[in-house]
C-alpha cells in the first residue's frame, strides 16, 4: 500500500466518512477487569476529550451514575504516525447479575446506548463463553451469528484467541479502527477478552496493547482472571516467535505463568476455581496441511526455545491445566486428552471423563481474508475431530465437574457439528494418575 493510498484512507477517516466528528466516540468495547462488580469501558476518539461513562440499572433510572476515567494518546507506528485517543473508564460497585445501560463520551459527543449484564460473583454459577480466533475485517463469517446470539443473551463473555482485523496496524491503523467498529455490537455488550496473535506483531504489538484493556499491568500480553468455577490464563505465544522485540519476554512470561499456576494450585484457590483454562494463539498440536509450528514434532510452543527452554506442555501438565484453547489454524480441531504425543483417554468409552492429560481445542475459523486451512488426509492418533468450516465454539462451565463444549458451523447454517462433556471429578496433577 503506497503512501498516497494510506493518506487517502486517513483523509476519509478524518473527514468522517461515517459521519463521525473528531470527538465522537467510536469502537466502544467492554472488558472485565478481574474484580467482581466491575467492568471496563474502552473507546476511541480522534481528538483528546474527557472520558465519561453515564450508566444506570436497566430497568431503572436512566444514566443515574457517572464514572470518569483516563485518556491515552496512541500514535500508530506507521509512516504517518496517525493519532487516536483511547479512553478507559472503569465502572465499579455494580450489582452482580444486574443489567445496566450506558453511553460513553464527553461534551464533544456521546456513543449510542448499549447495555450489559454485570458478571455474577462467587463460584456457584455457570458462565457461558463464545470462543474463536482469527477474525478479520473482511470475511468475518461468524460475526452475524455472534451478534444475533449476543443480542439473544446466550453469552456472558467472548474470548477472542488472537488475530484481529488482518491487520489492526494496516493502512496506518485504519483497518484496526474499522474492525473495532464492526465488532462493536458484540464487544460493547459483553466483556471482550483477548490474547495477542501473530497478526498483531507490528510495532511491537502496539495496536494490540493500546486498543484493548485487559486485566493486569502487561497491556494484555499475559494476564489471568477468575470467573465462576474457573481460573482463566491468557498469554502470548508470540513472544516465542518475535524474539527481536525482546528475548527476555519469553522468560518473563514463563516465570509469570509458573507463579500464576502455583497460586491457582493452592488448595483453597483450586477448591474455589477448580478449572484452569489457558488461552493462547498458536497451538502445540495440529493436523493442518501447512508448515506452521504446530505441525512440527518439536513445536516451539510445546517444547520451547532450543534447547527445550520454556516449553509450555510440561508446565501446563505439571499444574494440571484442564483445557487449552487455541486458534491460528483456520479450522476447528478437537484432540483426545494428550501429553507428549500420547493419548490419555479417561476410558475408551468416555475419553473426556477424568482424562489423564489436558484437552486441546483449536478454534480459529471465525473468518478472515486468508480463508480456511485444510487438513492433512491422515491425522495422527491424538486428533479426535476436525471441521473445515467457518464457525466458532460455545463453552459453558456448568459447575466444578462439568464443562460443555460445542462447535457451531456457519457453513452449515449454525448447525452444531461437535459437542463434548469434559467431566472431572478431580482437578490438578493428581487427576492424571
Ligand atoms: C456477591 O455480591 C453481593 C452484592 O455485592 C454480595 O452481597 C455477596 O456477598 C457476593 N457473594 C459472593 C459469593 O461473593
Ligand atoms: C516490546 O514491548 C515489550 C512489552 O511491552 C517490552 O518489554 C519490550 O522492551 C519492547 N521491545 C522493544 C524492542 O521495544
Ligand atoms: C481414545 O478414545 C477414542 C474414543 O473412544 C478412541 O477412538 C481412541 O482410539 C482412544 N485412543 C486411545 C489411545 O486409547
Ligand atoms: C454439574 O452439572 C451437570 C450438568 O448439568 C449435572 O449433571 C451435575 O449433576 C452437576 N453436578 C453438581 C454437583 O451439581
From TrEMBL:
Record EC number: 3.1.3.2
Domain of life: Eukaryota
Alphabetical list of Gene3D superfamilies matching this protein: 3.60.21.10, Purple acid phosphatase-like, N-terminal
Assigned keywords, A-Z: Glycoprotein, Hydrolase, Signal
Signal peptide from the UniProt entry: 1-19
Coiled-coil regions listed in the entry: none
Catalytic activity: a phosphate monoester + H2O = an alcohol + phosphate
Purple acid phosphatase N-terminal domain location: 25-117
PANTHER family: ACID PHOSPHATASE TYPE 7 (PTHR45867:SF3), PURPLE ACID PHOSPHATASE (PTHR45867)
Protein known as: Purple acid phosphatase
Native source organism of the sequence: Salvator merianae
